[in-house]
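Notes to self, Conserved oligomeric Golgi complex subunit 6:
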Amino acid sequence: MANSYFQDGLTSSNGDGLGTLLSPPASNAASTAPRSNALQNRVTSVLSSSYADLDIRDTLSILDDRQLKNTSEARRNLRLDVQQELIECNGEIVQDFGKVAEQLKRVGTAIQNLNSSCAAMRKHIGAANRETGPMLDEAKSILNDRQQVEAKQQLLDAFKAHFVVSDADLAILTSTAEPVNDAFFRVLTRVKKIHQDSQVLLGTENQRLGLEILEQSSRQLNAAFQKLYRWIQREFKTLDLENPQISTAIRRALRVLAERPSLFQNCLDFFAEARETTMSNNFYAALTGSPVDQDHPVMGKAIELSAHDPLRYVSDMLAWAHAATVSEREALEVLFISEGDEIAKSIQAGIESEPWSRPDEGEDAPVFDGRKALNELVERDLAGVFRQLRQRTDQVIQSHEDATLAYKIANLVSFYGSIFAKLLHGRSVLLEALTPISESAMRSFRSIMRDHVANLHGDLAITPDDLHPPEFFVEALNDLKVLMKSYDTSVITTDRNQRVEGFQPILHEALDPFLTGCENIAKRMRSPDNHIFALNCLMATRSVLRLYAFADRSPELQPRMEEHESELTEAAYTWFLQESGLKELFENVNTTHDLASSYQDPKQLASMAQQLDAFLPTATEDARAFLAQLEDRALARRIIEQAAERFCGGFERVEELIVRADQERSRLVNGEAADDDDEEEQAVLREVFPRTSDEIRVLLTPPPFFLSHSSGVWHFGVQAWIAAISSLSVLFTSRCRASVVFFANCGDTMMHSNIWPQPPARHADKK
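result:
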């Protein structure tokens, strides 16, 4: 609407609308000139105004909401209408404020009435206070005096109840005629509380009362602790730790007596001496079967009567000592170790209460360790038992000259030492008592082993005829098995390196000297006996050491075994050359020119061929007989196979030279144009020496006789048949057709007997 208004009313000066509006009539042009200038100024100001102003935009929005029409009357009355609306709004506001003023007048009247009432009440209260003031002051003074008297009476009663001990309680605390029971500990606790609280009285101006009570309570406490100390000593004389029902009174008494460290230590010393005597007597009774007294009979047989061998005797003694240590520790834990470390707290309190027990300046205050004190007490109780154990074990070691027994005892003692280490601390006196036993047993073991090795000079001079390990070496291996088993069952650690390292000294004493002796024996033998003997000894050693991983020396023994195996393979190869008669041929024939003399005189080559034919049928069995004294049959087979393979390789080389020599001879005689048939006729050496390398390999390869079992009958396998037939067929000469007929007939027999599966029809002609 506003836009339409300006579009209609404000047009350009050349337009009809604006020209009509702004141009005055022609008759009045002179009189209206100022008015037209003012109107132009207003229009200019309106046109220059920014319609982006918020006020103008709001004004235009209001005009738009009124929906005014753009008429001359509406434009004239617009201002008047707006002013009228403002006057009406102001009138409504004035009426509302008039109502508020009337209400404020009523509130002011009410406040004035309240002020009048309060003033009257203050007058009445002031008059009452003036009349009752003296009486209230007097009553307050009387009440204060009464409260002070009552407080003093309560304080006196509390003081008497807390700091004064009755004669009956004093008799319970100090009289030896009265028992040590709950009433005693109740009175003792009360007196300790009095002694502690009396120190508070020393902080007052008048310290006389505090000093008197402190001195009196100190005398009462000393008398009570002396009574408790004597009572505990009497109880210790009749105390039976084997009885699971230990009196709770003595445990409580020990915790209380710990507040006097000197008295408590005296009780521990007395108890340790008594228990050491008791445990020593019990150990002697367990050994001999003689009871200490009628009240404690010996259960079971005596150790000296039930132990059938020295190791069992030592083991039973150690087992008894271990059981006694465990039971003693458990009993002392029940007796001395309480929840919350009450004894430690009591000892610490006692040290603080005894100035002479405190450390000097610059020294650390000792901290009571209940577990450590318990271990020390157990050690003192069992010291006599371990002294007897050491003496008797040393007697067993010295009276038996047996290395395995000494080593078993050392391992047994070490095993129990590791068990005792879990029960006691690392620097235990009992562990230090076991260590010399183990060391003494090991010294005896080394001494006996060295004496045994020194006495083997006669056995080392004897060479075994069967090349088997000598008797002393077999005995050493058997003893080593016993030692390894003992070590395996006694060593607790699971770390492989530690187990291996721990057993190396034993191998050095129990195996290395005997291996060295066998090596010295082998050095005096001739080849191949020395290698067979050495391999037998090494194989026996390896089989024994492989039983336990910590003793396995395969990496160390393998190079030595491979060296002897290589030497033995060389000896077997030399044997093949000598027995076959081909040694001279293998050594002297390196080129075809070396065979030239055989064409003029083939007798020597024919003799070699005949000796080879005689050797081949039994070559494998003869080779096995050559290595029959080698105990490891698999190793012997491998050596024969390696030597045979080497022999076959040399034979192939000789065969190739013979074939080449015949070919060269044929070309020389008949020329290059000679056909194959002429070459075969001129192959003189091949006819004299007809054996082929394939035939040699078949005859020198041990047949793998695979067997199967069915219906209670053993059958040869297919490969066994093939090997057997091939071995028989090659016994014929290569030129003989009988070998072909023989092999074919055997094949037909195998076909018809269902040993070999029938071939397909298309291959029937190749049967």
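- Residues 1-30, 673-683, 704-767 have pLDDT under 50 and may be disordered.
- The first helix runs from residue 2 to 9.
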